[in-house]
Design goal:
two-stranded antiparallel ribbon, 3% strand, 187 residues, 8 helices, mainly alpha
């Protein structure tokens, strides 16, 4: 199974992840096609039958669905841009929100959401997508200082969003944490 999983990562998952930040906001018909590719590779790795549900299989492999993989990539670029470790052209697209007067939400680490004219392509541009996804994150994730803690928390958040009925065991903190809800993401 390990060899098959390695091959699936090398041949299929790497192709799904290549440029997947561009997949954000695609029509659901196109995303369904890409999800079928991932589902087939998960079935190949675990040798599950075609008629069995794929959600528990993806969950057991710790594979995010394609939609959430693109969100993960955009959020990683956004975090790196805010920390100053991303390329300069991305740092220029990520603008922190500065209200004109004092507001309680000022300390929430929000980003300014760009206005766009086009509904289909305008909402998919990096500036708008990054700000929208970032502002929808819980404050505890937006205020992370290191890349490692941000990665852990964002993966947990996306897994809970992708598989809401499952219980996740997360190792790496001081004790074993069981997450059933997005509100329980505090270490």
């Amino acid at each position: 199974m390990d060899a098959c999983k390695t091959l699936a990562h090398a041949l299929i998952t790497s192709r799904l992840d290549y440029g997947n930040a561009l997949l954000y906001g695609l029509p659901s018909t196109l995303m369904t096609r890409l999800q079928k590719v991932q589902n087939s590779s998960a079935r190949l790795v675990t040798r599950t039958h075609k008629r069995e549900h794929i959600t528990p299989v993806l969950n057991s492999l710790h594979w995010l669905p394609v939609i959430y993989r693109s969100q993960y990539k955009i959020l990683m670029y956004t975090f790196k841009a805010l920390q100053g470790t991303a390329p300069r052209y991305l740092e220029e697209l990520v603008v922190p929100y500065q209200p004109t007067r004092y507001l309680r939400s000022e300390s929430g680490a929000f980003l300014a959401v760009a206005t766009t004219r086009g509904v289909t392509y305008g909402n998919r541009c990096f500036r708008k997508a990054a700000a929208t996804l970032w502002n929808n994150l819980p404050v505890t994730i937006r205020k992370c200082k290191t890349l490692d803690t941000f990665k852990k928390k964002i993966k947990i958040n996306l897994f809970v969003s992708a598989f809401p009925s499952s219980i996740y065991y997360v190792f790496g903190w001081k004790e074993l944490c069981i997450f059933k809800d997005v509100n329980l993401l505090h270490p």
